[in-house]
Amino acid sequence: MEQNSWHRLGAEELQRMFSVNPQTGLSEEDAVERRKTDGLNELSEGKTVSPFTLLLNQFKDFMVLVLMGATLVSGLLGEYLDAVTIIVIIVLNAVLGFVQEFRAERSLRSLKQLSAPSAKVFRQGKSQTIPAKMLLPGDIVMLESGDRIPADVRWLECSALYAEESALTGESLPVAKHSEPIQAEEVPLGDQRNIGFMGTMVTRGTGKAIVIRTGMDTEMGKIADLIQNTDSQETPLQNRLEQLGKILIYVSLGLTIVVVVAGIMHGQPAAAMFLAGVSLAVAAIPEGLPAIVTIALALGVQRMIKRKAIVRKLPSVETLGCASVICSDKTGTLTQNKMTVTRLWAGGRNLDVTGEGYAPVGQILDKGRPIDLKNDQSLRRLLQVAALCSNAEIQETVSTDNSKRKGKGKSAEGDKIQNETSVWELKGDPTEGALVALSGKMGLTAQTLAVSFTREKEFPFDSERKLMSVIVSQPGGRMICTKGAPDVLLGRCSYMLWDGGVVPCTPTLRQKVLDANEGMASGALRVLGMAYRDMRPNEVVSNEKEAECQLIFIGLAGMIDPPRREVREAISITRKAGIKTVMITGDHGTTAEAIAHQLGILQRGGTVLTGSQISRMSENDLDKVSDNVYVYARVSPEHKLRIVKSLQRHGHVVAMTGDGVNDAPAVKAADIGISMGITGTDVTKEASSLILGDDNFSTIVAAIEEGRNIYENIRKFIRYLLASNVGEILTMFFAMMLGLPLPLVPIQILWVNLVTDGLPAMALGVDQPEKDLMEHKPRGAKENIFARRLGWKIVSRGILIGLCTLIAFWLTLRIAPDSPSQLIRAQSVAFATLVMAQLIHVFDCRSSRSVFHRNPFQNKYLVLAVLSSLILMFVVMYLPVLQPVFKTVPLNFREWCLVLVTAGIPTFVMGAGSVWSGKRKRSRGSNRPMIKSTKFSA
Ligand code: ATP
C-alpha cells in the first residue's frame, strides 16, 4: 500500500489489508507475530549521556584540572607520594561524583517512563489499556475527548469528533473528523479528515480507529527531531545555586590567594604553599552541590511516587513547598466517585431507592411501598432515558472463595466450603454507572432495552454544556433522550410528564422541579435530570443544539458520592500549614456546599460563588471576593482560569486540579497544575506538572509535604557544606594571618573534603521531615535560600569550626613550637578536630532549631555516613602504612579529649544558646498565633 493513500480506503478494505476484525481487534498471537516485524511505537529519543561520558565529565571540571596540574608539579618536584595520593583522592572524588550524577540521571529517566502515555485498544475481543509504545499497525483503538492520538490512525467510527492538529498543520482550531473515504489522490495533511495523526489531540467526541502507521513511520515521526523535548528540567533553585556556585568559586579562589600570599610572607616555603592553596581551593569549592541538589530532588520525587504523586516537571517540586491555595475538583478527588442513586423525583413524587454499589439489586419505594413499573409510565420512561443515555456498563464477576470449614463435622465435599461472592464492576463513568444500575434494579438492562431500542447517534457529555443526548430508534419512530444538570436541562424543556400525561412546563412546575432539586442537593446528593422527545419522521438533527430543545422533562435522580475518608484529615493538615483549600466543581451549589461542610472546607465567613455569578463579574469584582470564597459551584472550565488568575493576583501560589480537556488552560496557568491519573485526559496530564496516581486530594497534601521537605533538606546540606567549607578556609586563613605554620597539609585538606562532603551531605538530602514541617505557613515563592537565618548559621558555625580547629592546633603546637614532630602531632589534632567538628555539626543541620531538638539516630543513612567518615579518618591516622602519606600520628587520650571538646563547641554551645533563648521567649509567654510562624533560632 502506498504510504499516503490510506485516506482513500473504505473500512472493509482497511480490515482486509490489516487482516483484523474491528469488533475483536488483533489476537494476542497476531500481536506477538507482528511485533517481530514492526518495532515499538516510539519516536527516537534525543541524545542521552552514556555512563562513560558521565564519568569522563567528572575529570573535566576546572578545579580538578588545576589539581591535576598541581599534582604534576609536585611529582616533578619529587613529591611522588603526595602526587599519587592526590591522584587517588581525585579518582575517589570522581567516582563519588559519577555515582551521584548517574543516580540522578537514572531517577529522572524512570520518571519519564512513569508518565508515558497509554492507549485503549481492542485485543482478543476485549478492551484493554496498554502502553502506547506497544501499539501495532492493525490495532483497533478507542479514543475520546482529551486523548492524545497515540499513532497515525484511520477513523472507522466518529461521533462528533474533533481533533486539534496545530502541532502538525499549524491550524489552531480543532477540525471535525469523519470516517468516510476521501477520493482525491493528493490530499494535504490538514484535509485528511478521516485520518488521526500521532501526537494530536481529540478535543471533542469519541471515535474508533485502526492504527495505520506507528513510531518513526508516522507523520510526527517525520518531524520528530523538531519536536524533541529539549526542556532541561532545571529548577529555579538549581539555576540559582549554579550562580551561587560560580560566586563561591571566586570567593574561595580570592581567599586562597590571600592565604597563600600570607603564608609565603610569613616564611612558608612557596612550593608547599602553592599545593596547600590549590588543595584548599578544591576543598572549599562545593563542587558536589549541584549533584546533591539533583539527588535530593530526584529521591524526593521517588518518595512522592510511592505516595502516588507523579511529578512531571521537576521545577514544580520547589513550587509545591510554596503552595498557599489548593483548588480541588470535588468529584473523585474530594469524594470517592462511587455513585449510587438513592432518591428519585418524578411527577411530584419523592421516591427512595434501595441497594448498594453498582449491583442492579434493589427496589424503588414510594412511601415505603415497592413500585410496580407496569402501572407507572413516567417512571418507566425516566429509567429508560437514564439507561439509554449512558455509556457505562456494569458487569458481574463471581469469585469463588474456598475456605476451610471450622469445627469437626465433614461435608459431602470434604472439609471445604465454597462461598460464591458476586461483585458488580463498573466500566465507564460512575455517574452513568449509577443510572445503569438504577434501571437494572427494575429489569431495564442493556439487553432488554436493546430489544426495542437502537442507538443512532450520540452528543457526548461535556462539562461546559452539562448535558448528554442520544438519538435512539424504536419500531414506532425515533426519540431523543437527554440527561444532565437539572437547572440546565430545564431550560431546554417546554413540557413535563405529569400525572401520566404531557403538560406544558409552567413556571409553577419549573419551581417544583427546582425545589425538588434543591431538596436533594442539600442532602449532598448529586442530581441529574432526565428528559426526552419524540422526533418528527423526517427530522434531521445535526448538532446538540437542534437535539436538545422542546424536550419533555421527566424527573430527577439523586445519587450519593461519599467524601473520601482521608480527606477531612488532609484538609485539617492544610489548614495548619497555612494553605487554603478551595472546592471547584461543576456540581450544584447546594450539593457542593453540603459536601464542603462535611469535609471542613467551608470556613466561618467563607462564601460560595457560582459560575453564573462569576460570568457577571469583572476581574476587579472577582478579585474583591475571591480570597474569601471556599466553594465555586456550577463552574465551567473557563471559570477555572479566571479563578486561578484572580488568586494569583492576590499573591497566592496556586495548585489547581483538572481532568477534562477544557481544564488544561487553567491547569497550565496554575503555579502547580495537577491532573488526575485515573480519570484525567492526556491533554490535561500533559499540561500539568503533577499527576495524582489515585486522583485523591490527600495525595496533593502528601506531595506538598514532600515538596517542603525536599526544600528543607536542600537547605540542610547547603548549610552543612558551606559551613564546613568556611571552617576549612578560615582554619588556614587565621593560621596564616597569625604567622602560624600550616595547620593542615594539602593531602589532609583533600581528605577532609572527601570524608565530610560526600556521604553525610547526601544523607542530609534524604533526611526525615521535622515534626512541625506542616505547621508553618508556606514559604514565599521568592524566598532566598539563605533566608530564615540560614546565612547567619553558616557563617557563625563556619567561623567557630575554623577557630576551634585552630585553637586545638595551637594548644598542641604550643607544647614544643619548634619541634617538627610536635608540628605533625598538632596537624593531626587539627585534622581530627576539623573532621569531628563537621561530623558533629551535620546533626545540628537537621534541625531548624538546635541539635537538641532531634533524635540524632533517626536518620540511619546519616549515622552510617558519619560512621564511614569516622572510619576513613581513623584509617589515615592509625594505619601505619598511611601515616607517612597523610603525615599523621596516633593521638593520645589527652589529645582526643581536646579534639572532642573543641569539635563539639560550635554545635553544642550554639545549641545550648538556642535552647536558652527559646525558654526565655516561652517564659515571657508570647501570644501564639493560630498558625505558627516559622521558627528560627540562633
Ligand atoms: P468536578 O468538577 O468536581 O469533578 P463534576 O464532576 O460534578 O464536578 P462535571 O462533570 O462538569 O462536574 O458535571 C457537572 C454536572 O453535569 C453534574 O452536576 C451533573 O448534573 C451533570 N453531569 C455529570 N456527568 C454527566 C453525564 N455523564 N451526563 C449528563 N450529565 C452529567
UniProtKB/TrEMBL annotation:
Q: Name one GO biological process term.
A: export from cell
Q: Which E.C. number(s) belong to this protein? A: 7.2.2.10
Q: Does the keyword Calcium apply?
A: yes
Cation-transporting P-type ATPase N-terminal domain boundaries: 5-79
Organism domain of life: Bacteria
Keyword entries, A-Z: ATP-binding, Calcium, Calcium transport, Cell membrane, Ion transport, Magnesium, Membrane, Metal-binding, Nucleotide-binding, Phosphoprotein, Translocase, Transmembrane, Transmembrane helix, Transport
Is Lipoprotein set as a keyword in this record?
no
GO CC terms in record: plasma membrane
Task: Check the record and name the InterPro entries matching this protein.
Answer: ATPase_P-typ_cation-transptr_C (IPR006068), ATPase_P-typ_cation-transptr_N (IPR004014), ATPase_P-typ_cyto_dom_N (IPR023299), ATPase_P-typ_P_site (IPR018303), ATPase_P-typ_TM_dom_sf (IPR023298), ATPase_P-typ_transduc_dom_A_sf (IPR008250), ATPase_P-type_domA (IPR059000), Cation_transp_ATPase_P-type (IPR050510)
Write out the coiled-coil annotation as residue ranges: none
Q: What Pfam families does the record tag this protein with?
A: Cation_ATPase, Cation_ATPase_C, Cation_ATPase_N, E1-E2_ATPase
Q: What's the protein's topology in the membrane?
A: Multi-pass membrane protein
Question: What compartments host this protein?
Answer: Cell membrane
Give GO MF terms, alphabetically: ATP binding; ATP hydrolysis activity; metal ion binding; P-type calcium transporter activity
Name the reaction it catalyses: Ca(2+)(in) + ATP + H2O = Ca(2+)(out) + ADP + phosphate + H(+)
User: Gene3D superfamilies under this entry?
Assistant: Calcium-transporting ATPase, cytoplasmic domain N (3.40.1110.10), Calcium-transporting ATPase, cytoplasmic transduction domain A (2.70.150.10), Calcium-transporting ATPase, transmembrane domain (1.20.1110.10), HAD superfamily/HAD-like (3.40.50.1000)
**Location, primary (coarse class):** membrane
Q: Where is this region: Disordered?
A: 398-420, 917-938
The UniProt similarity line reads: Belongs to the cation transport ATPase (P-type) (TC 3.A.3) family. Type IIA subfamily.
Please give the name of this protein.
P-type Ca(2+) transporter
Q: Which organism is it from?
A: Paenibacillus wynnii
